[in-house]
Amino acid sequence: MKKQKPDNLKGFNPFNQLPQEIIFTILDLLNSNPLDIKSFSLACKSFYAAESKHRTSLKPLRQEHLPSILSRYPNIAHLHLTRCSRVSDTCLSFVSHACASSLRSIDLSRTHLFSASGLLGLALNCNNLVEIDLSNATELKDSAMAAVSQAKNLEKLWLARCKSVTDLGVGCVAVGCRKLKSICLKWCLGIGDLGVGLLAVKCNHICYLDLSYLPITSKCLSPILKLQHLEDLVLEGCFGIDDDSLAVLKHGCNSLKSLDVSTCQNISHNGLSSLVSGAVGLQQLTLAHGSPVTSSLADSLKKFSMLQSVKLDGCLISYDGLKTIGNWCASLRELSLSKCSGVTDEGLSSIVTRHKDLRKLDITCCRKITDVSISRITNSCNSLTSLMMESCTLVSREAFVLIGQRCHLLEELDLTDNEIDDKGLKYISRCSQLSNLKLGICLNITDEGLIHIGRGCSKLLELDLYRLAI
């Protein structure tokens, strides 16, 4: 005879008795895998309801699903609409009313169709909105910026490639969004000294400013460098900036920690010497695709005791320049020499034997280095977590054994288009922290080598086997 449940247990669900805090803690631990979250929500009605309340980030595939999705998830704070190629003003109006005060950031960087009207609804109804990404919205004009300026609590604004926005539009943002801390104006070709100057004067909390490829001159640098909280300044491709422009740095910008002047052909060691007296706290410097790295240029930067990261990608670099970098008083943690012509075993060795605390090293396409460099790198820099050495074609198979023997902390390794073989992979499999390994066009490896990697690198998340004949 089938036993019947007691009346007091009918409809009883033990999961309903769990405190909501415990369920939310479980969901936090499952966040890394969307399939785990889905399985959890389908377990029972109480878990389904809890997951709906707990979710704060959403990345829908199609805009027509938004009404049903947002009705299920009432606490969305971060909305990514990058997979919806077309987002209308009607859609944004619905979002602004459904999310209201809970919405803190919205990403519209790959979407089209919306206009100033939809943005105005977001700005007025979502009073806690602190971040908007409008990158690639080439059709947006100054009227859209006037709408954005109504978001009084906005702290981050991304306008990359908004080529129709002018100084007038940025001026509206500067006047309305006084709490701005980060703004990207990369490739906004309609913005010049006036608009940038207004931002610097009105938004004095700015700590990140990207002015890449803007037609600006030294006129706007003076108010920019007066920003007391400015830490990251990107001037990539600003051809109007030269040595005389950087002279204003002599008056001081003590808060500056990162400066990018890559692709600025008119900046030499004379301009960079201005940094020494002004930006004394500089930690990261990017000079990629710029002037040749000579001993004079390297010598102008030797007094930066806090400098940790230097990127010289694509520069012509001399042996004397590399030797001078090796003599810097700072202890570099990151050095990028990707596609630098002039890098030799002697020059590279002079750096790695002095800067033994290097964590990241990029020597991509340094085609003159040999096993000598790999021996010096692995012997001196045992704490490397990232080594990028694509197309170092003069490095022999035997040298890759040294990487596995000496650099056990590696998390990222790019060996694309190199002579590594199965024996090299056997030793590299000892790098148990490896999460990203690139082996594209490595024609000497077989299944045997990959088996070693599979057994030894349990934390591997990304494996590139492009054009492998296995």
How would you sum up this structure, described in words?
It is a single chain. Strand 3, helix 6 and strand 4 (131-133) form a beta-alpha-beta unit. The termini are far apart. It is flat, with a radius of gyration of 27 Å. The chain has a domain at 17-54. The chain is built from 20 helices and 17 strands. The protein has a 17-stranded parallel β-sheet, with no helix packed on it. It has 470 residues and is an alpha/beta fold. This is F-box/LRR-repeat protein 15-like leucin rich repeat domain-containing protein. It comes from Gossypium aridum (American cotton). InterPro entries: F-box-like_dom_sf, FBXL15_LRR, Leu-rich_rpt_Cys-con_subtyp, LRR_dom_sf.
How many DSSP E strands? 17
Strand fraction: 5-15%
The secondary-structure class comes to alpha/beta
**Spatial extent as radius of gyration:** 27 Å
> How much helix, percentage-wise, in residues?
25-40%
Low confidence ranges = none
Total number of helices: 20
Shape call: flat
Largest sheet geometry:
17 strands, parallel
What's the pLDDT, averaged over the residues?
91
The separation of the N and C termini measures 62 Å
